[in-house]
Amino acid sequence: MKENEARPGPTRHSPGLRPLTRRSVLGQTAGAVALVAAVPMRAWADTYPSHPVTFVVPFAAGGSADVYARLLAPPMQKLLGQPFIVDNRVGAASIIGTQYVHTSAPDGYTLLVISNTHTVNETLYAKKPFNLGNDFVAVAPINSSDLILVTRPTLGAKTVADIIAMAKAKPGALTFASSGPGTPYHMAGELFKQMAGIDILHVPYKGSSPARIDVIGGQVDMMFDATTTMTGFISSGKVTAVATTGATRTSVIPGLPTIAETLPGYNTLIWLGVVAPKGTPPDVVARLNAAITSIAQEPDVVAAWKKEGAVPMVMTPAQFTTYIADDIVKWAKVVKLSGAKVNQ
Question: Do residues 38 and 73 share a domain?
Fold first, then answer.
């Protein structure tokens, strides 16, 4: 995924998302308030926010975007003095919820939680009613995390080298599940195929849960999944952990190698962030960035997220704008080489 380009923010991650306790985030509110107070207030104090703010999550409840939006909402309310409401608007691989925010007033009261599904979709969906780079302004990243490659135990593959050897012996015979076209789970597999020079059949599902169930049940050979989501299934022997997808090994499953140790340069992750409709006032964007950044930098929040395999990403709006643009370019190459297509 990451190809070898240098980027702002952390490069070691892993997504898992066994729901964190809200208490671990809320407990840091006092320190976060102090950090936000240090930022010049200018016109913020008496203009924004004056009524509730909505985080639109264009993904299903229980996924990483939903979990972290709900963890951010209470401390954001304490910092900025108004409720932050999470609204799941699901459908069309995030396009329905994204379009809703695109057509919302650019006043800072309707925000979109995005992931790298959005940067993939810029190439995968040619007829979207919006353009991520032109129609939204970057507010702040949240965090990022690795994936883990697992197989059904009866496959008999213990290492990345085993999978590559099997795939080369029988091109197109092995299968990998994903939560849908263009998702990080799908793109991790496409990047793996390209870098290993192998042919593995993609089996898309409508969400990660049914995909996971079929790997556990043996209907599909393997899957790139959230690390901590799979931890219990790994320990019980229902799946075999092969490798993680980050540049370095994860502390969530000590001793498990990375794919990069077999395929140098392989690096892929799930990242989350917040954007707003184009035209949102810069002062509003700056205040939101300061609040999200302060929460993500609190020591207890960093420690709690680390246990889940997630690493806070801290950037200015300008840096996050560049990060998104670079990610669009990176994934455009993978999508085009993979030949991945969707019905529109």
Answer: yes
- pLDDT for 156 equals 94
Same domain? For 205 and 298 the reply is no
Which pLDDT band holds residue 25 (cuts at 50, 70, 90)? very low
Collapse the DSSP code of 172 into the 3-class scheme (helix H, G, I; strand E, B; otherwise coil) and give the result: coil
Count of C-beta atoms within a 10 Å radius of residue 197? 10
Residue 214 has phi, psi (to 5 degrees) of -75, -25
Report d(CA 273, CA 322) in Å as an integer: 13
Please state the domain count of the chain: 2
> Residue 159 pLDDT more than 90?
yes
Q: What per-residue confidence (pLDDT) applies to 179?
A: 86
Q: Residue 261, exposed/middle/buried by CB under 10 A (0-12, 13-18, 19+)?
A: middle
How many CA atoms are closer than 13 Å to the CA of 128, on its beta-carbon side? 26
Buried b (16+ CB within 10 A) or exposed e, 293-326: bbbbebeebeebbbebbbbbbbbbbebbbebbeb
Kindly report whether the peptide bond that precedes residue 49 is cis, defined as omega within 30 degrees of 0: yes
| pTM score of the predicted model | 0.81
Alpha carbon separation from 26 to 38, 73, 129, 289 (Å, rounded): 20, 9, 37, 18
Q: Quote the CA–CA distance of 162 and 243 in Å, as a whole number.
A: 12
